[in-house]
Design a protein that fits this description.
Blueprint (H helix, E strand, L loop, with lengths): L2 H8 L1 H23 L4 E4 H10 L1 H8 L3 E14 L2 E7 L6 E6 L3 H6 L7 E11 L4 E9 L1
Parallel strand pairs: 1-2, 4-6
Antiparallel strand pairs: 2-3, 2-5, 3-4, 5-6
Helix pairs in contact: 3-4
Length: about 140
């Protein structure tokens, strides 16, 4: 018998227990993700928060799940990432909604400029450009 097989035979209970613990941990993480209540905010309110105090806005929203409502401007694909741009009459910056899955792309086919759109994803912050980014998004 090889040393690897001998190790597993000798410590099979320990290895089995570790595998179960790791799988249980992964399962708990996925369950917890579904229970996160998103921060609900409009594009206009997010833009206002950034205009008033960028540091505070980053602290309040960065790496948090948000549900954001705005006006559809356009959709595009860049570097194999599909996204839409949401805006508001008084909002600068705009919000780039990076779609989680290809199945979300089908939903934007029927959007027209000016439609109200709600998306949920993880807020990643403001780019050096005029856009803020929300990633891993689903459209509601």
């Amino acid at each position: 018998m090889s040393k690897v097989n001998n190790f597993f035979m000798k410590y099979k209970t320990l290895v089995f227990t570790l595998v179960i613990v790791i799988l249980a941990g992964v399962g708990c993480t996925k369950a917890d993700d579904k229970d996160i209540t998103p921060i609900k905010i409009s594009v206009a309110d997010l833009a206002k928060a950034y205009k008033e105090n960028k540091g505070k806005a980053d602290k309040d929203y960065e790496n948090k799940t948000v549900e954001i409502v705005g006006t559809f401007e356009y959709g595009a694909t860049e570097f194999s990432q599909s996204y839409i741009i949401l805006s508001s009459e008084k909002a600068v910056p705009n919000v780039r909604i990076v779609l989680k899955e290809r199945s979300e792309i089908v939903k934007i086919v029927n959007f027209k400029k000016g439609d109200t759109v709600t998306a949920q994803g993880v807020f990643t912050g403001k780019l050096k450009s005029k856009n803020v980014i929300v990633t891993n998004c689903i459209l509601k």
